[in-house]
Design brief:
The chain is mainly alpha-helical. It folds into two domains: 7-36; 42-69, no CATH class. The chain contains three helices and two strands. Strands 1-2 form a two-stranded antiparallel sheet.
């Protein structure tokens, strides 16, 4: 930490290796978050739930009341 920083120079690009490591780790975390996300059950909005007659009256009745107003 007391020594000079090490830099990578490729063409017009000059970046410190520490910054390059941070950027690489951010990209890895982002890719893992996208790949490993587990989608929850498909949830219907209250209006969509009201459109299905086989559903319970809880959210559907509320949605129908809101639509009628």
């Amino acid at each position: 930490m007391n020594g000079p920083a090490h830099y990578l120079h490729v063409g017009f690009l000059l970046i410190s290796l520490a910054n390059l490591l941070v950027i690489a780790l951010l990209i890895v975390v982002f890719v893992l978050a996208v790949v490993l996300r587990r989608p929850e059950k498909q949830r219907l909005s209250t209006i969509e739930a009201g459109a299905h007659p086989g559903r319970t009256a809880g959210d559907g009745a509320m949605a129908e009341a809101e639509v009628r107003e």
